[in-house]
Amino acid sequence: MTTVTQQRRREIERGFIVSLGRAAGGSIVFVLPVLMTMEMWTLGASMDRWRLALLLAAVVPLLVGLSHYIGFEETETVVDDIRDAFVAILVGFVTSTFILTLFGLIGPTRSLDEILGAIVIQTAPASFGAVIAQGQLGQSDEGDKRRNREADYFGDLLFLASGAVFLSFNIAPTEEVDLISASMTPYHTVALALLSIASMHVIVYGVEFSGQNALMRDGRGFWSVFLRYSLVGYAIALLVCAAMLWLLGRIDDLGPEAALRLIVVLGFPAAIGAAFARLIVGGQS
Amino acid sequence: MAEKPMQEPEADEKPDQPSREVGRIEWIVGAAGALITIAVLATLIHEALTYKEGAPVLVSRVIGVTPTEGGFVVRFETENRGPSTAAEVVVSATLKDGERVVEQAEATLDYIARQSSRDAGIVLRRDPASGTLELAATSYRAP
Prior knowledge:
By secondary structure, chain A is mainly α. In chain B, 22% of the residues lie in helices and 45% in strands. In chain B, a hairpin with a 2-residue loop joins strand 1 and strand 2. The chains are: A mainly alpha, B alpha+beta. Chains A and B meet through helix 1, helix 2, helix 3, helix 4 and helix 5 of A and helix 2 and strand 5 of B. Chain A: InterPro entries: CHP02587_IM, DUF2391. Chain A: Keywords: Membrane, Transmembrane, Transmembrane helix.
């Protein structure tokens, strides 16, 4: 083996370790609000084990998809994306375990049940942050930058969903959502839903895409954006909220109307997050 | 996934960018991540399969008594041996001298997960050694 290839191999390893550090930083940034929310610690222990397993299982394909478009390492093939997703999960797992231990929230007096639950719940947003770190903190690589800019419709929808998860994940378990939805009349709910769609459209059309994707140049006009992004985006945001509230067991005891009201309330931050997805998730490009 | 990145003509643009090669550490970390994911999923599914409905079993025991200027601090531990989690567990302590209740105190524990325990304390004005101290959980709420 020549010294040149050895040196290059060292460079590769060093580059990966740097990006691991970046990923850890990103995961801390994203997970701190969730880590410091009381409901999150207790939820891990009381949550239905099937749903907890489902949460972890659902995170994997989402990370693979995100890694395809952004990711903290250069990715070329699906295998790369899958490996990246698992690296992100490891980073998220280690970060949340470390911080939960520092906070004294997990320790030997707690049962495995409780410890594992708390860690798994935190791992979801933490691994998310690990992947997103590249978009926000690091320089995107060439391939990702182009793919990010050229992200097809499916990629855009994935970004929307990620943004929705990002902004609503730490709100979903709180009691405030219940209180807000309980104090709202049906008129309030309708108004909030309309406001969510309207603000989504304003952000998507005005701030996001016209500056970056030049939708108008493509001949996609106001109504096209409204249909293809704002309405679909709001639907995705609501679906994300419904899935999250169900996973966390928040709508089990509610009737359909009360559950829908809860989803619409959480859908407001989710819609805003979805609309800003490109700034939050998609990086600076 | 809509498009496979393999199909992109990436290689022509930057033929020898070193970071595109994957180091050994990255494979190891990725494999470790996959292993943890599978292990955690297996544990969760095992727990889900063996889970039984049931009432929380709340057992309290005194860890120690410390005489302080503010009174006798009785530290205790409440353990939940049952299969379900209890929130807002109220533990009441009764100091009895024979049949006579000398002093009573109450402590509320936010949350005791199944198979877990929590520490708490009560403060009594009299020395608990002067009589018999009874500790018992009196109520809880489903989380």
